[in-house]
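Re: zinc ion structure - here you go.
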Amino acid sequence: MQPTCHFTVSFVDPGNHVYDMTLDVTSLAKGQHELTLPVWTPGTYKIKDFSRHLFDLSIEGSRGPVEITHAGKNLWLFETLDDEPLHIHYRIYAFEFGVSTSHLDQTHAYFNGAQLFLLIDDYKDIPYIVTLQKPADWITSTGLDPDHGHPNQYKAPNYDILIDSPFEVGKQSIVSFAVDEKPHQVAVYGHGNEDLPRLRGDLEKIVRTQRQIFGSLPYDHYTFIVHLSDKSTGGLEHLNSTTCGVERFMFRPWKNYKRVLELFAHEFFHLWNVKRIHPDMLGPFDYNREVYTHLLWAMEGFTNYYASLTLKRSGLYSVSDYLSALGKKLQDYERRPGRFVQSLAESSFDTWIKLYQPDEDSINRTISYYLKGDLVGTCLDLEIRRRTGNQFSLDTVLQRLYDRYGQKGIGFPESVYQDTVEEVSNSSFQDFFEKYIYGTEPIPVDEALLAAGLRIDRQYAKPKEDDDFENANSSQTSSIPYPWLGIDTKMADGHKIVITQCYVNGPGASLLNAGDQIIALNGYQVQKPEDLAKRLEYDHQIGDTVTLDLFRQGHLQSISIVLAPKPFDKVKIVAVDNPDTEQRTLFENWLMTPWNAWQNSHEQSSSSPAE
Ligand SMILES: [Zn+2]
């Protein structure tokens, strides 16, 4: 007989950052049993060993305390002598504020199930009940269904859904809207320059636009948990909820707010792409170890692609907003030497040890599956549209995967992705997958965009002139390269210019080190990274030898470097002259804007939202 499991999560004294947990289990069969706590939480591909925060574990059986053996970092064994009910008690320290972690303080409780809920044996497919014991004036926001008739009680049909439904409990602000008569709640913890009526309206547009692609909303209700704080913490997707961490003053101006909208559009799209459309390794999950897939470029990169596209399709972005976001991504991709070293498939597979554990060399040996996956999605979408005369697109690929797998709650073998693309376009994509997904050849963005009447204009960004008020908002470019040291720097401790990374294709690659503190150029002190850039630009030529004085591990060094040309770092996407009908039709189908309407609005400012 299967047990029933009832968790009580108690935090009546939240200032001590400790969740007091009890798990009441009925009729656990006689014999040996195990308790485990996940070592990671889906969506964040990093081993986090949540059990490091667990303490005071005890089990009470019908005859008294039950002996427990701690048999592994996240594993405990115990034995029952009879079919007996159990009362399991433990505590969890929670003081890590982030979307994929758990936090408890005087202002709120936020928790992800992977950090709190122990699993007995492999009873994943039984229903779970969760009761909250909380401060009386705190309210609860979660994707879980309330257990009607029982205040502060929620129910999950199985362990996976329990783990997949974070809770925000506190004094959060609530706004809501309905789409298809389904309630959508936006629960906002913290304050800044938020504009909740505007956010509610924009989220509704995002929901309606993405719903269009798949035809319906596959849930009864949806919860957006929003954390406003002094640092951005990204987002985490769930079946019918998401948590998004946003810097508290990101709601103005428009260039900042765009990033907020991109985040929400990304996380919401995940409810289909990755939560329902996913390779078989990504659900049901093994919570005790890493799970490996080569397809994160499709799960994350394509979700990024659809985030921007959603904002365009919903009218939140103008064509200029969309193309400038695309140009920025292309610029980030092209400046990474790592794109010639790591393929997208490898980037996905190695996410546990590379993307989630970056260091000063990452730029040289790795490529992000978010970034390159997004651009590959752009190329793939445009190529499917081109080959099928705008009859089909990447939408069609996702719709078919959703109908065949997502709707049925099953994952697919990895080869299905290419097969589906080929089926939709009725032609081979072998070469495309070999070069751009399993290989490291530069992705064919120029060619893809040309098919839509667009051209990529590669330029060099001028160092910012902080005293140039007249041009404060213009990002100046040049078609002539600037002298370059091949390094990125940051200000540390308020006054030190410290090298953060050295580019393998730069002149400083084998002369300078990450961590070096630059103090002077040709004997004269430099105070800020911008000053270094300006002095190189104004006073030097490519080919000049300069001397850098620096501290390396506290040891003063003088190093001579021959300046090299800076690679392209300002990418603009513009219309080609005289596009033919085919190019214009592809553009219009893709961005859902008539070519002439875009061209006529072209001179107008792109710095205000198209609402
Ligand atoms: Zn994502």
